[in-house]
Amino acid sequence: MPIQLILFLLAILGGFLYLTLLNIAPVPINIYPDITISLPVSLPLLAAFSGGVVTVMLLYFYDTFIDTVNKARKSALDKRARRVVELYDTGAEQLRLNNSGQAEKYFKKALAHDQSHTPSIIGLGVIRRMDGMVSEAVKLHSKARGIDKNSVTALMELGEDYIAAEQFTNAVSVFQEVIGLVGRSLPPHIRIRDILLKTRNFKEAISAQKRIVSIAPSGQAQKERAMLTALTYEEALDKLAGGRFYDARDGLKSVLRNDGQFIPAYLKLAEVYERIGSTKNSIKTLVKGFKATRSILVLKALEMFLSARGEMDKVVDNYKWAKNLEPDNEVIRLLLADAYVNVSNFALARAEIDSLNGSLAHTTLYHLIEGKIQHGENNIDQALNSYGKAREKEAMSCLSFTCSACGGASHEFSGRCKACGQWNALRAVLS
To answer: Fewer Cβ neighbours under 10 Å: the N or C end of the chain?
Structure first.
């Protein structure tokens, strides 16, 4: 207690004692008309003094009292908040483990303590979407958004709800709102791009991807540039399907300027040239493509174009050229042997296939070519034996395709792996 307050109280006490000692005799006091009582002056003075002391003490300790009450209230609120967080964290962990039933129970317990706990509301919304109750998920995530208008998580999940409901326009609007809150953040930009790609709006998807490339961190920039190339390829395929051959050609050229290793673009560009009547450019494109990629698939496409023109000798020349570029590539040597067979040069075909020392004897094509050579050499029994080993698959493709990204296998080639969605990842292998 401050010394000034103590001195003040002592002064009042001194005054009280002084007045009391000087006024010992009773003093008549009128408390009502015709009613008079006699009291020593000391009694009202003592009451006044006591009231003053109590008032001073209350005024002095008021802040301390209020502070104590506030601390007790804050402690209770903090304890409840910690309990809410514990319940939510447990629910989130259960959700991560795909135990949605238990997760829902913990989220509801958290909301029983705090009805406005946004993370728990969002968690319940995610569970509703997982259960196929998309409209309920939208309501819950909209509620979370109403409680906390700056909750990026609530907005992102609401956008995912709209995607699940195939309300793509609403989804894009929500993700754009997220961008307004967080600015240069990749996730909302990527989701907008994915929606545009899903709806085959390639022009807008490419614009979105360019923005992604501009804000991507250095470690991810190369991946996003590759994605931009892939989207340009998809847009070119869309134009090709719509009969816009020259626009498709320009798009595919743009792809190859960005990525000279993009094998599907070489194949499609050769197809475009063929459709506009420029087989010569088709062949040039494939020759350039093999130089750049050393892809067996490009080499086989080149064989197809030359064979269609009846230029079988050029097929042989191209395989010989490819062999010079890749002298250790056994598949090219096997294909060269096949090309020799097709021009009835069985001696050179035999030399090529014997140089393999049976290293590709596990493949269908090896036995087909061996059978053709035996047939050309009039070794009918051996030819039949080789055909038998090939299981009569001559009419079938001897190539299969493996994804370099996920390892998935396919019997059909496409520009994008159907298993993992990666572009320019399928590689031809002999089967």
So the answer is: N
